[in-house]
Amino acid sequence: MSPITEVEGRRLALSNLDKVLYPATGTTKGEVLHYYATTADAFLPHLRDRPVSFLRYPDGPDGQLFFTKNPPQGTPDWVRTVEVSRTEGQLARQVIVQDLPTLIWAANLVVEFHTPQWLDPESGVADRLVLDLDPGAPAGVAECCVVALWLRERLAADGIESYAKTSGSKGMHLLAALEPTPSEEVSAYAKRLALEAQEALGELVVHRMTRALRPGKVFVDFSQNAAAKTTAAPYTLRAKSEPTVSAPVTWDEVDAGREAPGRLVFRAADIGVRLERYGDLLAPLVDPDHAHPLPGA
């Protein structure tokens, strides 16, 4: 029988807490739940009011992985959901993670958390810009750092302050808070930035997804600004061989990452110390006072 615990007045059945999910580090499911519980104060603001998509890996990253947007079977009635428009005008429901009980309930399913760049499912209006830097081998994090620093300066030229995080996989994400702007306009602006980066950085950047173009280059993926797309949320664990985290980083760390990219790999055990030292480096993303107008909008 699964142990029952109470989280802020909600009773939760937590299963298989001793199961090893990350054999490389011996990390158990119980430790995964502890990670999410102890990072919740920083994590929840980046999930709140955004319909969540889940990448589930209940038997660890070496087992079955499946991506779902629908509320899982057996979702408690106290878990909030919201109606979201899908393709061809179809409506469906998705979970929104508003509080600690919902976060722990979802984490018990063993998930990566992915969110869109908007809050209102009816409007398609974005409040956030994201640029996903995806390196093609032999390029890696060091090359992503070079591109990220260029994009930071380019965004600053338009009056937009940007923030960086690791993807928790092999690349990086740049994010900025926006005043409400139609997703189509944000996507068009992000594409212009990708094209400019390709022109400015020559052989280092590609703006097209075509696999044959990407070896040795950093793909600046602007497409995740589309209303239908999602990006790995800040602080989510990733389904990798180790419990790596999509972790916020300072620009000094990005600068140093050009020479020492290994320092930009963060695991679950690292995040508590970083939060004590820096707080939430991405807090401005959820502060309306830090939202920027999109140029020309």
UniProtKB/TrEMBL annotation:
It holds the Pfam family LigD_Prim-Pol. InterPro entries: LigD_pol_dom (IPR014145), MtLigD_Pol-like (IPR033649), NHEJ_LigD (IPR052171). It is an enzyme of class 6 (ligase). The keyword Magnesium does not apply. Residues 28-281 form the DNA ligase D polymerase domain. Keywords: Ligase. One of its GO terms (molecular function) is DNA ligase (ATP) activity. It comes from the Bacteria. Its EC number is 6.5.1.1. Signal peptide: none annotated. NCBIfam families: ligD_pol. This is Non-homologous end-joining DNA ligase. It comes from Streptomyces albidochromogenes.
